[in-house]
Hints:
The structure is a homodimer. Chain A is mostly helical.
Amino acid sequence: xxxxxVASDAQEGKKQELKLWLRLLATTKLMSQEVRRRxxxxxxxxxxxxxxLAQLYREKDGLRLGELSxxxxxxxxxxxxxxxxxxxxxxxxxxxxxxxxxxxxxxLTEKGRTYFEGMADAHERWIKELMAEVDxxxxxxxxxxxxxxxxxxxxxxxxxx
Amino acid sequence: xxxxxVASDAQEGKKQELKLWLRLLATTKLMSQEVRRRxxxxxxxxxxxxxxLAQLYREKDGLRLGELSxxxxxxxxxxxxxxxxxxxxxxxxxxxxxxxxxxxxxxLTEKGRTYFEGMADAHERWIKELMAEVDxxxxxxxxxxxxxxxxxxxxxxxxxx
DNA sequence: GGCAATTGCTTCAGGTCTCAACGAATGTCT
DNA sequence: AGACATTCGTTGAGACCTGAAGCAATTGCC
Lengths: 161, 161
């Protein structure tokens, strides 16, 4: 939790960025551990799996693995493993394209579709519950302001793409 | 990145919590991937290691592994491995307490202290850089509002401690 | 004292994650 | 056509991460 403490001796107003960053990390870690635990105990799934399925859910025709990789911000190598496990239990299927035999497309099975819908519902309830004490107006402002942070970070990534 | 898209068809103002959560995840992931990469290329370290060292840095007398575990929000089993690796390259040392031979205390070596100071400096610069486009007033408000989210989440964890 | 519960750390199995190296298919350029 | 480069996915090593089971030391209770 308290990587936060690194900055505790910061002088008034200085190191704002650092403090915010540590709080961002702590908050996200706290919440995602809770979400992970519930996904695991109630659905036997993991967060990366849920994330991947969410992408496929909105694309009836499926997605190529590379596309999945960039949308989930997960490396190629990792997508391979995720897809293998999900295919193994019948949630998704994987097929090679005829036109270009390098590419593989993954998409939800019917079973996977139903399975995901259940999880997505529960997931949304959990998040609402976790944020229950926060004023709706604050939520809205947070969304916008976090957007600024994300934009800023994106502009300052090490030059290359 | 765009787990965010799961919520794209949300009706005006509804699903605010979900959208915020997804943005929180995306922002943190984006930034921590960048930080990880730089830690790795410039210092040969990882983020969890940095986190752990940060805790030890502020406690001259060291910390017991259990304390490290709860402060870094890392499981016990994981702390064992982290500490082993850090001890192997001389950054920290581990010793058993005489009073209670169950407990192990880890603390920074002199070498580790210097090493960490260099990283901490660089780390702070990186974060400032990544957040450079965000207005200081916004940073301040974000810090406070994120605090509310964290508090709320903490209150709603599955009952047990 | 004696013995069960508790505490503190380690070990283990399985999944996630990164980077780097590889191999196959396709594209490009001459 | 032939050679080179690029794209896409897989593989592999190493670290991280989790929950659960295991083991040792200590505490608590009779």
